[in-house]
Amino acid sequence: NILQRYDRHANFVSYLVDGSVHCFTCHNLLYSADTTGPAPKSRISSQLPLTAWLLGLVDGGTSHLCGNECSGELLEQPAWHGTAYCDKAQYGKKV
Length: 95
Hints:
alpha+beta; two-stranded parallel ribbon; globular
C-alpha cells in the first residue's frame, strides 16, 4: 500500500475524500469537500473540511489541523475490504 509506505515518514499525512473526483484544488469543489465527499452528504457535517486541513499544512502548525483524515471504519490491514474503511495504523498522526 502506497499510503503505508509514505506514512513511515514523519512529515507525511493524507486527506482522503470519498468519491470519484480526483483533483480538488483546481475546482470550486475545494470549498465544499470534506472526507465524506466533494459535496458533504449532510450540510451539517462533523468532518474537517478540506480547506481547513490545507490551512493546517501552511500555518506553521498553529491550527493543529494537519493530520491523517478519512471517512470510514478504522480497520487494521487484515480486515480491509472494499473502500469504506480507514487505515487504523495511520489514524491520529499529526505533523
